[in-house]
Design a protein that fits this description.
Elements lengths: L1 E4 L6 H9 L11 E5 L15 H13 L11 E7 L9 H15 L12 E7 L2 E7 L13 H16 L17 H9 L6 H13 L5 H10 L3 E6 L5 E7 L13 E2 H4 L5 H5 L21 H21 L2 H20 L3 H17 L12 H13 L6 H27 L3 H34 L3 H14 L4 H6 L3 H13 L4 H11 L8 H12 L9 H10 L5 H12 L7
Antiparallel strand pairs: 1-3, 2-4, 3-5, 4-5, 6-7, 7-8
Helix pairs in contact: 1-2, 3-4, 6-7, 10-11, 10-13, 10-14, 11-12, 11-13, 12-15, 14-15, 14-20, 15-18, 16-19, 16-22, 18-20, 19-20
């Protein structure tokens, strides 16, 4: 159950007309009163003799009783309470009881308070009600509404438990502000799928992803086609900024500007500047990373940075972990805007979902996230990736690791009882899996074909390597559809001079495999990265380069080496 307090208004009659009217798309069916401060309150929906004006006069009577100079300019309070789609349809009596609980919890009409505010609850759809109240009590005083939104949320959780409804994850005040009803209606009228607020939030988020300086950030905003206004101090320093879409105008024909803080809490200029800070006690600059030569190189480095971030989430303190989680959002934003068409939709959905996971009340220790932020920058500057070849295969390689990273973020949030963030990270992981399937289908199909064509002696040798290195997981790995691809990768690594058993052992101790949906896929990408193999099986130039760097080993030689290594005890983390 979702309660939402809307902006306060100045005209009671306007809201009454909306509540009892047909709706913007004729969606209001049988509008009627379900509860009110007085059982004799007229109901224009069911009583033909009742009028909107009568209901307005009744609700506004305490307001009009005050001298004109003491009347509040915004005296109309509006709360909507909506059930979840999977909830059963509640009766009018149920909604009436819910309305009374809400006005009590928010302070509009506390139990036993005969001088409380006047209110009415209107139902015009099966799944929700609207509560209208006027913010002057019968005794002429104002109601105490401190933190009424938080108290409404708490009461909604209690109502869900009492009525057996779907439990909605509670918020913590760190979510981005939702579009208002007026913004949504305006978007509908203009034929937009999203409101300007939502479009601007995504554009600003993408512009800041991996940006190395304030000027670069503003240059990216301008390149995205946004209108920008900077708030400048007399000293010339920029204090803040606002942005607008060129086509979004108000009734006067002027652009509608939004400040960064109104888009999301972490998009204010002071919060953005925190991303460029050094770790406390670190007076030295981190050495510059080698220049990125293309999308495939950037994606390989994203895989390595994601692995390092996993280690921090496993062993770091909360501030460092929060920084890694926030920077992961930047990587996803950068990946989404440079992805190929067949993965773009799911990657954009993953980035949008993870945006909620990137913020919590745990303050990020910025500076410790430089590797991920550098990767985000590399992804942006390397340009759009192709859907096939090394670009496409390294995308699958990076996504395989980012799925683990999103799940690790979800688990950390769950431990900290950040319910909304944990759910958002899990949603992002679901979209990343779908993007991975699209990116990995071609290279994995090629590897499976090659694995199926391996000579029987090579197949037996790779099977033995798996059983020797991963005895507890071998049966499951060998039964997976992706086993031929793993066998082909092991054979390719062996041809390049690596020992399959040793590689498998190293790959397994890097991180547990039991939570992976397809362990063979995970091992394929880990091995190809560890062995320096091209991600794309058809990348002959990369294959030659790998072979030139290592001595070719025969199956018997590799088996002897694997036996020697198996008799040692590899250090396990």
């Amino acid at each position: 159950m979702i309660p939402r307090i809307h902006k306060r208004g100045s005209e009671t009659i306007g809201l009454i007309r909306y509540l009892y009217g047909p709706g913007t798309h004729e969606e209001h069916i049988d509008p009627h009163l379900v509860a009110a401060f007085d059982p004799l309150t007229p109901d224009p929906g069911r009583d033909p003799s009742a009028t909107y004006k009568q209901l307005e006069r009744l609700l506004d009577q305490p307001v009009n009783a005050l001298p004109a100079g003491r009347r509040p300019k915004k005296h109309v309070w509006h709360l909507s309470v909506r059930a979840s789609p999977e909830d059963p349809i509640l009766s009018d009596d149920d909604w009436a009881a819910i309305a009374r609980r809400m006005v009590t919890a928010t302070g509009i009409a506390p139990d036993g308070d005969d001088a409380a505010c006047r209110w009415a609850a209107v139902r015009h759809a099966d799944d929700h009600i609207h509560i209208i109240a006027t913010l002057v009590r019968e005794d002429g005083r104002r109601p105490r509404l401190h933190n009424e939104a938080r108290r409404a949320q708490a009461e909604a959780r209690a109502i869900e438990a009492d009525y057996g409804l779907r439990r909605v994850t509670p918020g913590d005040g760190t979510a981005a502000k939702r579009p208002t009803s007026a913004e949504r209606h305006k978007a509908d009228r203009c034929g937009r799928q999203r409101t300007p607020r939502e479009e601007l939030r995504e554009a600003v988020r993408r512009s800041v992803a991996g940006a190395a300086s304030e000027e670069e950030f503003f240059d990216r905003l301008a390149a995205a086609g946004l209108l920008i206004r900077r708030r400048v101090a007399p000293s010339g320093d920029t204090l803040g900024y606002t942005v607008a879409l060129p086509g979004d105008r108000n009734a006067k024909g002027e652009p509608v500007f939004y400040s960064g803080s109104k888009l999301a809490p972490d998009l204010s200029l002071p919060r953005i500047r925190e991303r460029w800070t050094q770790p406390s006690g670190d007076a030295t600059q981190q050495p510059a990373l080698p220049p990125v030569t293309g999308p495939a190189s950037a994606r390989r480095r994203a895989t390595g940075a994601a692995w390092q971030a996993l280690l921090v989430i496993d062993h770091g303190h909360d501030g460092m972990i929060a920084a890694q989680v926030a920077a992961t959002g930047e990587v996803l934003d950068a990946l989404a805007q440079t992805s190929a068409a067949h993965t773009r939709h799911e990657l954009q959905a993953a980035a949008t979902a993870f945006e909620r996971a990137s913020r919590s009340h745990v303050r990020a220790a910025r500076g410790h996230d430089r590797a991920l932020r550098q990767v985000a920058r590399d992804l942006v500057h390397s340009g759009p990736a192709l859907g096939r070849g090394e670009d496409g295969a390294t995308t699958a390689m990076a996504l395989d690791m980012l799925i683990f990273l999103a799940i690790a973020a979800a688990n950390w949030h769950a431990k900290k009882q950040h319910a909304q963030q944990a759910e958002a990270a899990h949603q992002a992981a679901t979209h990343l899996r779908a993007a991975y399937q699209a990116a990995a289908s071609h290279p994995m199909a090629l590897l499976n074909q090659r694995g199926s064509r391996l000579a029987p002696a090579w197949q037996r040798h790779q099977t033995a390597a798996v059983r020797q290195a991963l005895p507890e997981l071998a049966d499951r790995i060998l039964a997976e559809p992706g086993w031929p691809a793993l066998a082909a990768t092991l054979a390719e690594a062996q041809t390049a001079g690596h020992n399959p058993t040793s590689l498998l052992t190293q790959a397994a101790v890097r991180r547990e495999l039991n939570t992976a949906e397809r362990m063979s896929d995970v091992l394929v990408w880990r091995l190809r990265r560890m062995a320096g193999l091209p991600a794309d099986p058809d990348n002959l130039q990369g294959s030659r380069r790998a072979r030139g760097q290592h001595t070719v080993a025969s199956p018997n030689q590799a088996a002897q080496t694997g036996t020697r290594l198996a008799n040692t005890s590899p250090r396990r983390r």
